[in-house]
Amino acid sequence: MEDESIIAAEIIDPQTPDPSALEDTDIAENKKKLSSYTVVCVSILIAYLINYFLGKRANETLALSWASKFTLKDVIFEKNFSLLGVGEGEDSPLLLKEATNVFKFYASGRRYCHGLLATLELKSRHDLISMLFNCVVPCKDEISFEVYMNDEGMDHVVFALARKKAAKGMLKEMRDLQRFGGMVGAPGGRKWVAEELAVVSESVAGDMITDVVLDQQPARQWKV
């Protein structure tokens, strides 16, 4: 009888865990973890979308600000080219959007010149991952100019204008500058480029950088 009572006591011992209760606890914990992961993923997605639209708008604002500043009446592009923008009408857009952070500007209608192509490559402000990466490895907005001359309009020439540190690097990396060009000093008794800039060219640099070029006010604002 004693053995039977002991067995019965063991069976109804309240300290023995209930398997169904343990299963319910595991399910609740899994749901809690899943909901936490869901909140994190949704938060990241919302942050990415907000950054995308804000970054896209910021790049468009920068590109339009640049275009409006340098294409106004009596400014450098309007003075040198008769057709500005990617169309022929007065209401044609000034910029061609090639990507979210890449914009192109075209100008034509100048003697001895097919045209000019300016490419603005801005930071990927719309990409949250790129912006986080830029916090570690900074990058800058860049603009490049390509001027297409008529072959019969002028002889071939090697010319570069850059900040002094960048000019030294270009002399080491670019073969045409190494072979045909060199650092050109300021000629005596004449206007020249800003002190922080350097000219790498052949001996014709003095003929290309004339007082007319230097007197164009917007040209002094260009930083390369």
UniProtKB/TrEMBL annotation:
Single GO biological process annotation from the record = endoplasmic reticulum calcium ion homeostasis
Q: Name one GO molecular function term.
A: calcium ion binding
Under the heading InterPro entries, the entry gives: CCDC47
Source superkingdom: Eukaryota
| Keywords, in A-Z order | Membrane, Transmembrane, Transmembrane helix
Entry's Pfam families?
Answer: CCDC47
Q: Name one GO cellular component term.
A: endoplasmic reticulum
Residues crossing the lipid bilayer are: 34-54
Q: What is this protein called?
A: Uncharacterized protein At5g49945-like isoform X1
What organism is listed for this UniProt entry? Raphanus sativus
Which lineage do the record's taxonomy fields give for this organism? Eukaryota, Viridiplantae, Streptophyta, Embryophyta, Tracheophyta
